[in-house]
Structures are given as structure tokens and as C-alpha cells.
Amino acid sequence: MAVSKVKIASIIGVTDKLDDVIRLCGQTQYFHPDDALSFYSDTRKFTTFTDANPYSDILQELKSLLIRIGKDLDVVDTRRLDLPHYELKNYVERFSGRMDELLNQKEALEELQESYVKQTVEIGHFVGLNLDLKKLAECKYIKFRFGRIPKECYEKLSKYEDNPYVLFFQCTSDATHYWGVYIAPVEYIQQVDTIFSGLYFERLRVKALESTPEKMLQELQEKISELKAQIAGLQKQIDDNWNQEAEKCQQVFSKLEELDTYFNIRKYVAKHDNSFILTGWIPEEDEENFRERLSKIDGIDYAVEDASEAVRHTPPTRLVNKKLFKPFEFFVDMFGLPNYHEIDPTPFVAITYVLIFGAMFGDFGHGVVLSIVGFLMWRLKKMSIGRILIPCGISSALFGILFGDCFGFENTFNPLYQAMGFAEKPIHVMEPATTNYIIYTSVGVGCVMVVIAMALNIISGLKQKKYAKAIFGPNGVAGLVFYGSLLVGLVLQMFAGIPVMNAAYIICLIILPLLCIWFNEVLGKLVARDPDWKPEKWGDYIIQGFFETFETILSYATNTMSFLRVGAYVLVHAGMMLVVFTLAEMSSGIGYVLVLIVGNAFVMGLEALLVAIQVLRLEYYEMFSRFYDGDGIPFHPVTVEKH
């Protein structure tokens, strides 16, 4: 549906022209390089380029510097900047050298400042001791230990009240610990240390013991102020240097990104003597422009062929969808891109996902809020899922009008229905008759979805020339006839009273398609005129085919019944909002309003998440499994961008 057609472009020329060709391919931004050697059967005379990339180290050095100074550069146009490799290297080395010197000085001062700040925190716990710590440290016969002890362990100190040296002098405390000091004679300090260690005492080694804690704290704060001034001065020098070099640096950065990207294309190139071969894929609509640009380079020859000529290659997949469907490429890409010959399921996913989501989450108010949230997610955070939530919210709002539901208020749209000639809203979700109708409708939706998936599989099989898959497979014509005939026969026989399930109907439209599914491998080989169509052992083949066919029949039933969750979530939504209003009515005044707000927010968040997951499950397991492989190779043209 929306897989863009691509062509193979093969370029041959002298090696001196390789850089010009690569530059042109990169500037087009639609050339997808491929391994040139893989396109030829005899490659004995060819080799590949193994030169080390001369730009990667320089680029990495500049990127590391930009990270250190907190700058994030974008890639800009560099066509006016024509500097050889050595000048680019010299510029980066000079610029990095100057900035590194300033940054190293700044980082050293910041590290010192951090250590001083840590010391202020440490010493701050002991303000109020009114002791000269320097004199205390000079004591010969006693030792002291500053630190903290968990509050629950502090209570256990009472067990050691008989030991006069197990005393903890508390200074300050926080939520979990007491901070303080214990003191013991030199000959008992090891014993006391052991006791406190068992109580999870964490010793704090105060680095500066010059005076009282109050004076030390003041001195440290003065040093921190001095360091802040020095750091600010260095930062100003860094900023000044950056402002002088910002424009040139961005140009050099962009040029290095460009040269690095282009040089990496060489790994796809094959060479022989003084010639090269570069092969890749281009969109069909850009062929004329590509030819025109290549023709301006002397010393090369080129050929552009249809993708069908690449018998041993799978062309890359490039999705091109309408703006309305494009957000849903996110789901397709998450499962796996279609291969070049497959159907792109994006439009199918977009339509079915939005409709099923809206039915399962039918509430006008919730839908409007969901659309607003999706819009903000996309505009502010550029989240892909945000663009998907916008149409899903609109669908929920429309189904909410159909169900007459707005933030759980079920009579909101009665005036609208009365204006349309109804006495009240036509669908009452919680009424028994309506509940049965919702369940039957869910099963009907499942039948329609399974039939559509089979039809898409038939189209995809014919497109890929897999006729056995399209005609005799469980999801081919045989499967469609069997499933459709069984459904139509049961509905007409059981609900309309029309006796269509006669012998001819059963044999021709049920049994015969089932036998085709059973023997689909043999029939496919016969259609393809494969001389080796017979299985090695008929008995084993028949038994294996029986179990596979039985599993297929079960899959028809389970896939269809899985859509019961659509109706179930319609009922779940109504039930959850009934609980919210019941809880609200148990309150009064502002409590009633708060319960409604909180309840709606809870239901909206929980149900939106669950519905999004369940609908995606229906897409992947009940529908994709019938017609879609998703083993495509993404189309990645050469583009110069920040890595």
C-alpha cells in the first residue's frame, strides 16, 4: 500500500573520484548504501577499503570537550567551509588545549570547594561542643572518636552502663542518627572501638583540627567564598573563549560530522586496481535527479535498475503514508517493518486501532482530555505516542456521545438526542438487553477483522507470488472460504432459521476448503509444478497435517473470541464509573466533587493504559499473525546528522 518503490544504483569509476561520488550520495539524502560485493557472483579480484577513519578521533575529541563545557551543537551547512584534514585537526587541538587548561583549573577548584563543603557539613554537627579540637587531639592519655550512631542502636548503649568508658556525648541529630563523640583512655580505646563498631557507629575523621568547631566553620566558609569567586572568574574566561569561537567551532563540528559520515560509506565500496564500485538503493521518484547529478562527475559510469533485478537481495523498506496515518508507523516499526514485497499495514492499523480504542474507551470527557494530553506529549516532549493519542481521544469522544457518557454522567447528551427525535439516549450500556447486544457486536467485529486480515494475506501472497500461501493456506482463499462459509451457515441456520447447512454446502464450502488447508504444502508444490511434490512418508504427513489443521480451526475460534474484550471493556468502563459515583454519593459537599475528580482521573489513567495495550494486542496477535511477517530492512539513506 505505502511501501515506496526503490531502484538499484551502481556506480563505477576511478578511485580518485570516489570522494566526489560519496559526497554527492550523502548530499542527496536519499542514497541507501549496500555491500557492493554481495551483488556480484565472482568477487575474487575485488577487495574492500580497510583504511582507518582519520576523522573519528578528532570528532570524538571535540565532542568530549563540548560535553565538558555543556554545549550541544547542531549540524549546519558547511559547503562554504573547505578546510583540509590537517587544518581541522590543528583547530580542534588548539581550541581543546586552551579550553582544557581552563576547565582543568576550574574542576580542581570545584573539587577543593566540594571537600570544604563536606568539611563544613561534618564540623557543623559538632558546633556547640565549645572545645578546642587541636588541644584535644594533642592529648597523650585519651583518644576521641567523632561520628554518628543509628538511633535504634543508641538505645542499646544502656546495656554497657557498667562500663564507664562506653559513653556517647550527643551533639546533634537527624531523622535516623545521633551525631556526637565518645572518649576513652588509650589503654581501653580498642575495646571501646569494638563495642561501638558492633553498634554500627560510623566514625567521622575530621580533617582540620585547628581550633573550636565554630571558628573552623567560619574559616571554611571564607575559603569557600574565595573559591567561588575564582571559579566564577575561570567560568567567565571559558564563556568568553566560547563566544569567540562558537561560530567557527560549529562549522568545524559539522564538517567533521560530514566527513566522518562520508568516510564510513567506504566500507560498502568494492575496489579493483584503480577502480571502485559503489552500489545502493534510491527511491524511484528520485531517479531522474540522481542521474542528473551523477552525470556532472567525470570519470564515472553508472546504471540504475529496478529492484526486481536484485534476485538475491531484499530491497530496503521505505514507508510513505498520508499525514493522517503516519503516526501509526510507530506501531508497525515496533513490530517490524514490512519487507519490500509485503503490504504496508499502517493504514489498516490506523483505522482499526482508532475505532476499537474509541469503542473500548467510550467517554466524551475522557476522550477530550486524552486528546489534549496527547497533543501536549507531542508538542512539548516530541513523544511519538502523543500523536497517536490525539485521534484515539477524538474517537473515544465520539463513542462517548453515542453512549451518552461524559465523565461518567450518562444523561449529559439527552438534549441532543431529544433534538434528534429520541426520548433519551438509545444505548444504555448496563441494561441486560444492551449488554447482550454489545457482546454479539464484539464477536461480529472479530469476525469482520479476521476476514479482512485473511483478505490482506491473499493480496500479499499474490503480490509476493506465493500462490500456495494465497490460495491453499489457512489464511488464504481456502481458509477464507472455510471460515466465511462456517460463519454464514451458522448465522443463517441458528438465527435466521434458513437451512443452508445441507450436504452440498458442507462438502463444497467447509470440508473441501479444510482438505485444501490440510494438504496445502502438496497442493502448492503441484501448482508450482515441483517434481518433488510427494512427501517422504504419507502417513507422517497426514498425521502432522491433521494436528496442524486442528490447531488452525482452534485459532479461528480463539482469534474471534479474543474480540470479546472489546465489549468487556465497554462494560468495565461503565462499571468503574458506577463505583466512582457510588463512592461520591457517600460523601457530600466538597467531598462529592473531590471523589468525582480523583475517581475520573484514576479511571481515565488506568483504563487508557489497559485499553491501549489490549488494542495493540488485538492488532499484533489476532490480525498481524494472519497476513504480516514484518521482516523488512529499514531504508536508511546517508545523512549527515549528530550521532
TrEMBL record:
Query: Where does the protein end up?
Result: Membrane
**Protein's GO biological process:** vacuolar acidification
- Keywords, sorted A to Z: Coiled coil, Ion transport, Membrane, Transmembrane, Transmembrane helix, Transport
Question: Does this entry carry the keyword Coiled coil?
Answer: yes
InterPro entries membership: V-ATPase_116kDa_su
* Top-level taxon in the UniProt lineage: Bacteria
Q: Tell me how this protein sits in the membrane.
A: Multi-pass membrane protein
GO cellular component terms attached to this protein's record: proton-transporting V-type ATPase, V0 domain; vacuolar proton-transporting V-type ATPase complex
Q: Which residues form a coiled coil?
A: 92-122
Q: Which residues cross the membrane?
A: 348-376, 388-410, 437-459, 471-496, 502-519, 563-584, 590-616
Pfam families per the record?
Answer: V_ATPase_I
Molecular function GO labels: ATPase binding; proton-transporting ATPase activity, rotational mechanism
Q: Which family does it belong to?
A: Belongs to the V-ATPase 116 kDa subunit family.
Supply the name of the protein.
Answer: ATPase
Origin organism lineage: Bacteria, Bacillati, Bacillota, Clostridia, Eubacteriales
